[in-house]
Design brief:
By secondary structure, the protein is mainly alpha-helical. The chain has six domains: 17-205, 3-Layer(aba) Sandwich (Rossmann fold); 209-279; 283-372, Arc Repressor Mutant, subunit A; 407-536; 541-681, Tetratricopeptide repeat domain (Serine Threonine Protein Phosphatase 5, Tetratricopeptide repeat, Alpha Horseshoe), CATH 1.25.40; 688-754, Arc Repressor Mutant, subunit A (Orthogonal Bundle), CATH 1.10.10. The chain has 39 helices and seven strands. A hairpin with a 7-residue loop joins strand 6 and strand 7 (336-338). The protein starts with 20 loop residues before the first helix and ends with a helix.
């Protein structure tokens, strides 16, 4: 990277993609166990996985979906990547990151494998683009099976869309296996029609009589033929129910009478049998199970902290020895989870026997995770504990790290779960909510948050490291520019005056805001220094470095420094690639600069393709302020006009007008750039030269400009479109040789037009 761009030293801790060993357990399929019943008929069905792009194993809890997939992979031996999903993967960036991590650790690998080429590392949360994941699968020489377990937790449309994209672009040697309790939100009909979907459902997974007898015999339970069939009828072949029945029946003097005495549906049988099994253990062990049930995954250390004991390791070994639905998650038997059925019943028992204690247990878990830097789990357990103040503080400290990693969705979900109550008494919480409202383009919420902060501007420093509430509000105004170029410049100038600590990430944020504001207003010389301050700062958020490099590239291009412009654009793209951020909307300015640099080097069509990609990214989200889109549309239309694509250029200019319609002041530099494009297109208003006479319509508009009406109001007064009035105004400025409304009035009076 040239001039040290992006040479980022160790600064703010990044959100964990792996969470250390906590993620590793999600990436390993359950190790084989000797007590698993081998079901030949299902193993034979699974043999067809390699003949189908997608396999769906869908059934309610307790049907052995995970066991079947793990057992087949153990015996069949194809290269495989395993990911056990949880609700946090509804953040699309986290989902991509963890799919990539699973590929890198396929079959127990501990680092980037030959197929992935280092898509993700252990310290950075952003995931690669879906295209990079598909490319890594295509580069694998052998068949690879990707298993997504517990897919039912993915409920968001974005997550489904990403997996849909993956399905549509799977290379022939890649096979996706989805384990879920409910049909996923994917377009399965097309896969069925084409024969590309293998389905295994509850009816297939239900035990046969022979399989049920094998399970019961393994647990030492012997029933006569009638009782076996009665048990099959009661459970409808439900594997979990039959397994629990075996545990309940073992050692009973009259197991047949026990079977005759219970009835009901699967849920009743499950609850009943779990309670029967738990009743056969000591009170201490039952208490341990109930306490640990608040955890999705757990280790002895974590269990000790949650339960307040020092004997969790012994308890876990005892549970594993007695086969009590404890699933080891790694070969070292350090991380475990309960079977979902046992966990659900144990949580119900906890609430029944010790009401309110779950919150205490969640609070202890939150503290344990927080001490180990696992912010995701710490926030989740704090919210579950009802400790919204701690959850809010964690979000206030870490929101910038998550946004920089592309995980805006995670922060938004946290804020929604926490609710607005903390904002009333905590200015830092309100400032964080204002940042997020600005990022997602919710201007109404942003105005509300900023209004609530007007009386506490000196409050600070804030937990995120910014100097004060005033600094935060100034940076928001300067970085996003929702109030127009004037407010944008004033906010950026104030932010730079306040954020003077070069070791704070907000020093770079403030400088990037000032550089961009100066560029928007056409003050190119003033823009350079703060932009360099931003991208050279090794504490700068990655996305701020990218934006600063991209804007400097555009500045250098306008100054005629095409080589330096190309270097900055290349550096911005390198940063995106090295941090897996090509797919986030904030990245679009890098594509803007790179597309312009390619075109300036003579690679016009590749430049237009790059610009089209940037525009597509920006259109995916209306967020992040209006000026990135404005910058892009001007550059894109210019390159299109230079290449002779007049229709495209005019379409882009029309779109630009719609984005600028809300602003009436501070657009002189923008208008000059647009005028240059129109001159390239030989449009009427682009050909106007200084000194030409004003038309009657232009004289009418010039006279009205003496008042306080905006251009939009003038258009309504004259029954013209806003774009038409803006076109006339530009022509007036150009004929009078001025760049601003006030100057046009002065010159117009001097020349006798008004």
């Amino acid at each position: 990277m040239r001039d040290g761009a992006g040479a980022r030293s160790v600064g703010r801790a990044q959100p964990q993609a792996s969470g250390g060993s906590f993620l590793e357990v999600k990436l390993r399929r359950p190790p084989s166990r000797g007590d698993w019943v081998r079901r030949e008929r299902l193993m034979s069905r699974m043999g067809a996985v390699r003949d189908h792009p997608v396999t769906l194993i869908a059934a309610p809890v307790g049907y052995g979906k995970t066991i079947l997939a793990a057992q087949w992979l153990e015996e069949a031996g194809p290269r495989s990547a395993w990911l056990s999903l949880d609700p946090d993967e509804n953040d699309p960036c986290r989902l991509r990151a963890h799919v990539a991590a699973a590929l890198e650790r396929a079959d127990g690998g501990s680092g980037p494998g030959p197929a992935t080429g280092g898509l993700i590392d252990d310290s950075a949360a952003p995931g690669p683009t879906l295209s990079a994941i598909v490319d890594s699968l295509a580069a694998t020489a052998e068949d690879i099976v990707v298993v997504l377990d517990d897919f039912h937790v993915i409920t968001g449309a974005e997550g489904h869309a990403q997996i849909e994209h993956l399905v549509e672009h799977l290379p022939p040697q890649a096979h996706l296996v989805i384990l879920t309790r409910a049909d996923p939100g994917l377009r399965l009909g097309r896969l069925r029609a084409s024969g590309d979907l293998l389905e295994i459902r509850a009816d297939d997974l239900a035990f046969t009589v022979d399989e049920a007898e094998a399970v019961l015999a393994r647990e030492g339970a012997t029933l006569d033929v009638d009782s076996t069939h009665r048990l099959m009828d009661r459970t409808e072949g439900w594997p979990a129910g039959l397994y629990l029945a075996g545990l309940s029946l073992a050692g009973r003097a009259d197991p047949d009478s026990f079977v005759r005495d219970f009835s009901g549906g699967n849920r009743f049988i499950g609850d009943y049998l779990v309670e029967e099994v738990l009743a056969r253990h000591s009170d201490d062990l039952r208490t341990f199970i109930e306490s640990v049930s608040v955890l999705d995954r757990f280790s002895p250390d974590l269990c000790d902290r949650v339960t307040g004991t020092t004997r969790s390791g012994m308890a876990l070994r005892e549970l594993e020895r007695t086969n009590l639905f404890l699933v080891p998650l790694d070969d070292d038997r350090h991380w475990y989870r309960f079977h979902h059925l046992l966990a659900a019943v144990a949580r119900s028992e906890l609430d029944l026997h010790r009401p309110g204690e779950a919150r205490v247990l969640h609070a202890r878990a939150a503290e344990w995770f927080s001490r180990r830097g696992n912010v995701d789990e710490a926030v989740r357990h704090s919210i579950a504990a009802g400790d919204l103040q701690t959850a809010s503080m964690l979000v206030e400290v870490h929101w910038l790290d998550y946004v920089d990693a592309g995980r805006i969705a995670t922060v938004l979900a946290w804020l929604k779960a926490i609710g607005p109550l903390n904002e009333a008494s905590d200015p830092a919480a309100s400032a964080t909510a204002a940042w997020m409202a600005a990022l997602v383009g919710d201007e109404a919420a942003l105005r509300t948050r900023l209004a609530s902060l007007t009386s506490v501007r000196e409050h600070g420093p804030l937990p995120d490291g910014s100097r004060s509430v005033e600094s935060a509000t100034a940076m928001i105004a300067g970085l996003f520019g929702y109030g127009g170029p004037g407010e944008m410049m004033r906010g950026a100038e104030r932010a730079v005056a306040l954020e003077t600590d070069r070791y704070s990430p907000f020093y770079a944020v403030a400088n990037a805001a000032l550089g961009h504001a100066a560029y928007v207003r056409g003050d190119l010389d003033r823009a350079l220094a703060p932009l360099v301050n931003a991208w050279r700062n090794d504490r700068a958020p990655v996305i701020i470095q990218v934006v600063a490099l991209a804007i400097e590239s555009l500045v250098q291009d306008e100054l005629g420094e095409t080589e330096r412009a190309r270097e900055r654009a290349d550096s911005a793209m390198e940063l995106l690639d090295s941090h897996g951020l090509r797919g986030v909307p904030q990245a679009s300015l890098a594509f803007t600069a790179h597309g312009r640099a390619l075109a300036a080097d003579g690679a016009v069509e590749p430049g237009l393709a790059t610009l089209a990609r940037g525009l597509s990214l920006r259109r995916e989200s209306p967020a992040h302020g209006p000026w990135g889109m404005v910058d892009h549309l001007i550059v894109h239309s210019r390159v299109a006009a230079e290449a002779g694509h007049a229709v495209l250029a005019r379409r882009l200019l029309d779109e630009l007008d719609s984005h600028l319609a809300r602003f009436t002041e501070g657009l002189e530099a923008i208008d000059a750039r647009v005028a240059h494009v129109r001159r390239l297109l030989h449009d009427e208003d682009g050909d106007v030269a200084p000194g030409q006479a004003l038309t009657d319509r232009e004289l009418d508009i010039l006279r009205i400009l003496q008042g306080t009406m905006s251009l939009h109001e003038i258009s309504e007064e004259l029954y013209l479109s806003s774009n038409t009035v803006k076109t006339h105004a530009r022509a007036i400025y150009r004929k009078l040789g001025v760049h601003a409304r006030a100057d046009a009035l002065v010159t117009g009076r001097r020349q006798g037009f008004i």
